[in-house]
Amino acid sequence: MSYWLLKTEPDSYGWADLVREGEAEWTGVRNHTAAAHLRAMAVGDLALIYHSGAQKAAVGVAEVTRAAHVDGAVPWVSVAVAARHPLRTPVTLAGMKATPALAGMAMLRQSRLSVCPSTAAEWAAITALADQIS
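Given the sequence above, the corresponding structure tokens read:
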């Protein structure tokens, strides 16, 4: 199993929308590197849903339910994801940046990417932060 981080603008489509729908097609990725990450996703992989914009926080966990396929007539791809559970507490960007175990995280090094891989250790660090009582 691999781990990922999917960024979204909650005003356009956020965690609450994914929870309401249950499962959704993750479309609109138009960056070649981010699209390559989508192609690398496999059914059963887990992804943090990260709200960019004003909130700047990881808020929930989704699971990849269908691997990448061509999204429309152009060579871009999408995957299907299903909402699994919210994080106990959102993990803010500031919290991620302040955590030494996350210093090398792709999302922090390439902040403009909408789809980023995460290591098992980074996933564990983020979920541990989410489980801390504020």
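DSSP finds five helices and six strands in the chain. Try to locate this feature in the token string yourself.
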